[in-house]
Amino acid sequence: MANYTTADIKALREQTGAGMMDVKKALDEAEGNTEKALEIIRLKGIKSLSKREGRAASAGLVLVSISDQADGQVGVMVEVNSETDFVAKNDKFIEFADKVLAAAVESGAQDVDQLLAAPADGATVKDMVDGIAAVIGEKIVVSRLARVEAPAVTSYLHKSNPDLPPQVGVLVGTDKEAAEVAHDVALHIAAYQPEYLSRESVPAEVVEKERATLEELTRNEGKPEAALPKIVEGRMNGFYKENVLLDQPFAKDPKSSVGEIVKASNGNVVAFVRFQVGN
To answer: May I ask which residue range the UniProt record assigns to the signal sequence (predicted)?
Structure first.
């Protein structure tokens, strides 16, 4: 029987993030040699990477970083996914995710492909992903990256479960005047999940499709043909209130819209991004 203790198992689990049975099997195979066991865990993980390609990585976390630049601020947000919540709250996984975020900030990557190719830990982010996936034994994915540049950038991270890392992240870019209400706007975005910033930012094809659907629905209800334009326009306003940030009733004061709250600050929201893990 291999000579190792429960302390050896605990130390190797903390070092790798691997499951208890995987650690015990590796220690047995390595006859108690922790360095050899670590190599066994890594090699087995690398061999099984292709088998995990089809698995869903719907757990994970969201991280943000805001830094100053010459003409304002830049906010960077990444979503990093694992298969289970158990891994998502693992210290090794969180440390890895922090390195991914740092690489995103340092490289100036504009999308996930650029981020995966960016340098990190003496290799690339892609190499880091493969390395931690091999050790932990789950599919690990860097799924999303966003950058918001504005005179002022505000972030908000929300924990859906207090035992897990943040599951929802928001970046809001504003001018300096609206920075005073940006935090409340970020909280609103986290809760109300708007799709678009303004009516003007809704793609024309989306508006046309929604309007056509509402026209057909209204006509099928038997409404007078002459009244259709006004009824449809009213229903389009409802669509905007549901999906457009500036049209939504403000979370802290539903009698006012987000746009009215921002206007009262004499400022403007110029951009926002919302991530929710797995969505």
So the answer is: none
pTM of the entire structure? Answer: 0.80
> What does CATH list as the number for 203-243?
1.10.286
Fill in the DSSP letter of residue 245.
G
Query: Does domain 59-199+246-276 bear CATH number 3.30.479.20?
Result: yes
Cα 269-267-199 angle, rounded to 5 deg: 40
Residue among 197, 174, 209 at smallest CA distance from 245:
197
Q: What is the pLDDT of residues 26-35, one digit of tens each?
A: 788 887 787 8
Determine which helix (DSSP H) or strand (DSSP E) holds 85, and give its type and residue range: helix 85-88
Residues 6+ apart with CB under 8 A from 109: 103, 115, 118, 145
From residue 277, how far is each of 62, 84, 191, 239 by CA, in Å?
7, 12, 14, 25
